Write a sequence for this structure.
């Protein structure tokens, strides 16, 4: 039986976030270069994007490159940038055929002109697509995002356009890169690591966490649906005593 049948189509999470980890270890285990692992990882991105669209997930956020990843060897960083540009170009039919709007969150100013141009083109071309938002976290870290929000809020307060008593959770949400979407319902990390690595720290306050032992290139539709089905069994109480799920005791 496919895990797709185990997925309750009436309870699809609106936002799934994914830490795509394990490309390097996958490659190493096969005697391949780390870059071959990243290339294989792109295939998984395509598979999971289609799978998410198929079950009607509205927002899919993928952690593709962290602020800290700039500290990797120059060759790996350059090769990843090249792969990103190629991908944005090659995946355009997938985005257009499936009504997928591309979004980017992160400090994109630091990318080279070729990467920025490819990103802008993909953002523009897909801007009218409205079935699913595919959100790429690129040069992203939650602390960068929170520092930026604090600075913007301070500037507004200094300019007199924001009163300190109006600084609340909604105000902070509006200053985050993720302001256009709800918080993740489900956060999945592959590769067996059980940590957050500076991803969406504010937004995951009440997300359900799911850790898969599988390296990202080996993660597939079945494993994705299995994670969604597992999420659907969770009892999300949000600090209250009653379950959000009326089907559970
Ligand atoms: C995730 O795979 C992709 C990026 C962070 C760009 P890794 O490259 O982190 O793979 P491992 O964790 O070394 O196996
Ligand atoms: C997290 O993976 C970042 C991305 C998946 C883009 P890392 O491989 O960079 O994280 P650590 O080093 O294991 O925490
Ligand atoms: Mg890693």
């Amino acid at each position: 039986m496919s895990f797709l049948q185990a997925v309750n189509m009436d309870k699809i999470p609106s936002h799934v976030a994914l830490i795509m980890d394990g490309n390097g270890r996958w490659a190493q285990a096969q005697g391949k270069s780390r870059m071959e692992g990243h290339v294989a990882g792109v295939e998984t991105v395509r598979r999971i994007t289609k799978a998410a669209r198929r079950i009607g997930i509205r927002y899919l956020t993928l952690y593709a490159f962290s602020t800290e990843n700039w500290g990797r060897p120059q060759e790996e960083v350059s090769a990843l940038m090249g792969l990103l540009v190629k991908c944005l170009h090659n995946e355009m039919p997938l985005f257009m055929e499936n009504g997928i709007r591309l979004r980017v969150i992160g400090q994109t100013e630091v990318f080279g002109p070729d990467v920025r141009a490819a990103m802008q083109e993909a953002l523009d071309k897909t801007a009218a697509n409205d079935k699913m938002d595919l959100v790429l976290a690129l040069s992203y870290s939650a602390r960068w995002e929170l520092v930026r929000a604090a600075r913007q809020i301070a500037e507004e307060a200094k300019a007199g356009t924001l009163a300190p008593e109006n600084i609340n959770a909604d105000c902070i949400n509006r200053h985050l890169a993720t302001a256009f979407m709800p918080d993740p319902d489900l956060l999945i990390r592959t590769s067996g690591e059980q940590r957050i690595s500076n991803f969406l720290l504010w937004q995951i306050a009440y997300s359900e966490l799911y850790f898969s032992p599988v390296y990202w290139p080996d993660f597939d539709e079945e494993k994705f649906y299995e994670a969604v089905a597992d999420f659907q069994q969770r009892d999300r109480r949000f600090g209250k005593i009653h379950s959000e799920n009326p089907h559970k005791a």
Q: What stands out?
A: The chain has a mean pLDDT of 96. The chain is about 40% helix and 15% strand. The pocket of IPE (ligand 2) is lined by residues 19-21, 63-66, 69, 193, 195, 197 (CB under 6 Å).
